[in-house]
Amino acid sequence: MSFARSIKVVGPAGVGKATSIGCMLFKYGGIPMDVIEVFQRDGITKYDQVPAKLATLKVVPTFDIPKYHISILDSSSDKKADCTILVISPDKLLENVNCDVKSMMAIQESDRIIILLNKMDIYDWSEAQFRKSKKEILDYLISLGKDITRVFIVPVSSTSGDNYIGTSLKSSWYVENSKPSATVLDALTSVLA
């Protein structure tokens, strides 16, 4: 039996939010076969093209993971999501989130937060860069009064799909919440429980 859950994916411009959504939909089987055929016909070949094309086709983006059927709400929707996923990158950390009203509102209304620290491939999967970014993110969430004990911060590359389903060897140093190398799938499963 699957439980219905919803997520909002937010983040400032240029961090790979659309790419992250497209990656999740493909990795977790959220693209129906007839839509894949449309993608092939229309030359949709990159993850970042997926959300816009689904919107023009009027297809609600959904996917399934063990135990949950997940709908991706539009980031401008007034509906409250069960979980907020904030996509950021080391080069566009929190100063940009503060300027992004949709991201700020979604984070403030959510008790379940996953941070995707995207574009880690550009930083050669640097553990030092990840730790620096993680500290800044956690300090920011604490300043908002958030309980950070259930926040997952996952280093990812949304263009290649690293750390979405399986653990990437490139981030073998990564441990989150006492769990070695949690993936986006692990984070979703834990946060939505």
Descriptive overview:
With 193 residues, the chain is an alpha/beta fold. It has a single domain (3-191), classed as 3-Layer(aba) Sandwich (Rossmann fold), CATH 3.40.50.300. The protein contains seven helices and eight strands. The protein has helices at residues 17-27, 33-42, 50-56, 94-99, 101-109, 127-143, 184-191; strands at residues 3-10, 62-65, 68-73, 83-88, 113-117, 152-155, 175-176, 179-180. It has a six-stranded mixed β-sheet, with helices on both faces. Strands 7-8 form a two-stranded antiparallel ribbon. The longest helix is centred in the C-terminal third of the chain and has 17 residues, at 127-143. The protein is globular and about 45 Å long. The two termini are 14 Å apart. The model has no long low-confidence stretch (mean pLDDT 89). Pfam families: GTP_EFTU (PF00009). Keywords: GTP-binding, Nucleotide-binding. Residues 5-190 form the Tr-type G domain. It comes from Sclerotinia trifoliorum.
- CATH fold category name: Rossmann fold
Approximate shape: globular
Written as H for each helix and E for each strand, in order along the chain, the element string is EHHHEEEHHEHEEEH
- From the alpha carbons, calculate the radius of gyration and give it in angstroms: 16 Å
CATH class: Alpha Beta
- Helical amount: 25-40%
The CATH fourth-level homologous superfamily: P-loop containing nucleotide triphosphate hydrolases
Structural class: alpha/beta
Contiguous runs where pLDDT drops below 50 for at least 5 residues: none
List the helices and strands and how they pair.
Blueprint: E1 3-10, H1 17-27, H2 33-42, H3 50-56, E2 62-65, E3 68-73, E4 83-88, H4 94-99, H5 101-109, E5 113-117, H6 127-143, E6 152-155, E7 175-176, E8 179-180, H7 184-191
Parallel strand pairs: 1-3, 1-4, 4-5, 5-6
Antiparallel strand pairs: 2-3, 7-8
